[in-house]
Structure formats: structure tokens, C-alpha cells
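Class, study these two lines:
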Amino acid sequence: MEYKELSITNIPAISAVYFSLLQCKYDFYSIERDTLLIDKLRSFIISDCRECDFFLDVKQNTCEVYPYWPRAAMLETATFYIDLPQEQFVDFNAYKNSIMSAKNISDIERNHLFWDWIIQFPKALKLVLQSNSFSRYLKWENDWIVEQNLKYKKELERIRNILALCKEKFKSPIQNIQVVLNPIKCVYSADYHLKDNNFIFCSGSLREEAVIHEFIHYIVHPIVENWKDEILCCNFTNLDIDTSYYLNNDEVGILNAFEEYMVRVLTDAIVSGNVPETLEVFFDQEINQFMRTPQV
């Protein structure tokens, strides 16, 4: 089964999250964006946006390179569990389980302070969605989305073909792919969400390797779990990735860091046209090669 033609979309609730962050001095929107787009986004900044106060607490200090991780991503996920007219979560327990089962979030990032804060999100989100300032912004963003589809038509087709090949070779259960872009979100920040076997990629820009990277995470994760004994025996503590991936530096953290490392290696291979026949063989080769390489 091939994936249907890909197109770039937006999700108003996620757009509202980043519009709110823009009002809260989110300064990652200008990285590697052209002057015209930066000026346009700045024109949507309001001097006094009290309905956005809730979003001031998205910025944390647990990830030095991107202090909006993981709360911005957790807000994105929350939008799929919210009944806006009722200003409440549809299934708070399901949302909580999805966050608590995530292996790339440390315990301190999802402690009682987070849960006390996130419960206010539905009401805060509705306030923004109903504001005139956001409505003006969303009207412009809708036009920007149309432009992105025209600009990246060939790239979207190539991504679709690559992911279809990965689905076939790696037996992925994902049935549908949605590419969600937001012009405010940092171009280097990419997250994925799963909803009823639908893979939703959300980022600030369309980069082939980023879509593949997030897609591969979902496939690689269970393999890392199956190989965890071998991985932990190898003591992968010097991987060339940011230290935040090691979380609490325990077994979960080491496995999370190793997963990120393997996803990067596999993504590079796929982008280069070298899609492995099986992930088990690929893992075995990479682990053996890593063990033969002196650690410094």
C-alpha cells in the first residue's frame, strides 16, 4: 500500500500554541528565515496579550539548546485530546498515559507541576482561538500554507515515495501521513504525533531528513526495546549527541540516547538511497561497528 499524495497543512489549535509563544518572546521564529517573513511575523506581535499568559510557562530550563522542549511538544499532543467547546480534555487519562509512556521525557519534566499547569490548557487555548488577533494571523497563515505546497511539491512527492518504501521494508503500521508546518515554530524543531495509526509530522519547515527522522523514530523504538540488554552491555555513553538525550543518565536515558543515535544513522542511510533490507541486520552491523571503534 502506498501513501496518498502528501500536502502541507496546518492545525489551528497548534497554530494557536505558537502564536501564543510568539507573544511570550519566543525568539526561535527568526532562525534561518528570510527578512520578509520575519518582519511579517513580528507584525503579529501584540504589546499586551493577556490571553497568552498561560504560555509563559512553556519555556523551561531542562533542555539548554531548545528550552521549549518538551512543553511545546506536549501542548501539541494535548490538542488532540481536547474538547474546545467544553474547555476540557476529552480523555485526560489517555493524554497522561501518552506523556508518561514517552521515553524521551525526563521525570522532572512531567512532575506534578506540569500536570497542575496543563489542566488549564483547554481554557487558555480557547481564549486564543477566539481572539481577533489570532484570527488575523490564521488568515495569513492559511495563505502561507498554500504557498508552501506550491514551493515544495517535488519534495513532498519524494518524501512520500521514500516513506512508502520504508513502510514496505520495515512493516510499519502507519496508514496515513500528515505534514503540519508552522511558520513560527523553530525550523530545527520537529515532533511527531500518532493518532489512530496516523503519523502527524509537525515542524517549522519542510526538511526531507526531518520527516524521515521522525517517521523512523516510531519504527526504531520497539527494536531498541527488544535489543536493550545488548545495548546496555555496550555502555554507549559517548554518542555524539546533546547530553539532554541521556535524560537522568539511567538505563532509560541511555536507551533514549542510543535510539536518537541510531535514528540519525539510519536516516542518513535512507536519504542517501541505501535503505537496509532489514532493521535487525542494520542494528547488528552498527552495534558491532561501534564496538570496534575506540571510545574517547
